[in-house]
Amino acid sequence: MTFNADDEVLIVSCEDDPRAAGRTGRIAPVLCHAHELTRTGR
Questions:
Q1: In the prediction, which pLDDT does 8 show?
Q2: How many secondary structure helices (H) and strands (E) does the chain include?
Q3: 1, 13, 15, 20: which has the highest count of C-beta atoms within 10 A?
Q4: DSSP code at position 21
Q5: Can you say whether residue 22 is alpha, beta or left, with left for phi > 0 and alpha for psi between -120 and 50 degrees?
Q6: What 3-state DSSP class applies to 36?
């Protein structure tokens, strides 16, 4: 799945930073991989 900079996503899991799981926000430089994210639809 590809994302755009203005997409709001939910971090489902994040192997590199488990504290990020459950957070939502816009795409930014993060350590999470695309398969760990899902679009929120907003």
A1: 93
A2: 0, 3
A3: 20
A4: T
A5: left
A6: helix
SS3 1: coil
Q: Which residue, among 25, 22, 30, has the nearest Cα to 9 in the 3D structure?
A: 25
Can you name the residues that pair with 42 across neighbouring β-strands?
none
Ranges of each domain in the chain:
8-39
**pLDDT per residue as tens, the chain (42 positions):** 788 888 899 999 999 889 989 999 888 767 889 899 999 987
Is 39 in contact with 9 (CB distance < 8 Å)? Answer: yes
Show the DSSP H helices in 1-42 as ranges: none
End-to-end alpha-carbon separation of the chain, Å?
16
Kindly state the tokens that stand for 16. Answer: 């590199």
